[in-house]
Specification:
By secondary structure, the protein is α/β, with parallel strands linked by helices. The protein has helices spanning 52-60, 74-82, 96-99, 147-156, 165-173, 184-194, 225-237, 240-249; strands at 9-10, 13-14, 28-32, 36-37, 41-43, 49-50, 66-69, 88-92, 102-104, 110-111, 114-119, 136-140, 158-162, 179-183, 199-201, 210-216. Strands 3, 7, 8, 9, 10 and 16 form a six-stranded mixed sheet that branches. A five-stranded mixed sheet has the order 13-12-14-11-15, with helices on both faces.
Length: 255
Amino acid sequence: MSMLKGCLVLTGLLQPALAWAGPAACTSLVYSANPQYPPFHWAAGKEGFQGASIELLSLALPKGVTARPVVYPWKRVLYLAGQGRIDLVVSLRKTPEREKYLVFTGHRSFPNPAVVFVRKDRIFPVRSWQDLKGHKGAISLGDSFGAEFDRYRRKELDIKEANTVVENLRRLDAGHVDYFITGKYPGAYYLDRIGNGRIVSLDTPVTSRSIYFAFSRKSPCASLVDEVSRRLEELERDGTADKLLEKYMQSHPVP
């Protein structure tokens, strides 16, 4: 069988990757992301995705490597990346479970601390994870806030999942839950557009982790991880990443 030139695409998805044949094996890749996670990224019809992560990706990929988006629900994106049918997932948190099937860049794409959102009239002090006990919480389906917190919340906290940030904010506003945990920037993005002044974020972050690009371990494009990581470091050092985050925080779509 001849060496593949790029990643084999069929009906918009990569087939399971063949054995890696060196850097030349990846001249194109398929990428995806959480379809509702502004300002970092969101699904945008025929264009695939928009957002800070997508513009950052265009600057971080080596010259000559093209990228094609595919849009799926978030949990399916992770499943397909594990199968090698998606080459790259942009801007997600590292966890030991994800590292089993993804190779993360050494440098982050953006900071993304996770914070607690509550109704103004039902604020309670949160200085540590233990303060969440006895309250009903929510997170979005497929979200992870680091292995340590994920273990703690499964064992100690009453937290339910809903599909999207918007759905969870509405549940919080209606009083169905006492708090909602999500990334600081996505939560603030939605509140700026659909908020009614009743929901606020608390000061103490649940975690202060960043988000990263990650290649499927089954993709020949994983050979690009070090080069992309070096480029991400350059783009943060020269202020480009911060400018992109600020730019898309000010954009207006509500995915």
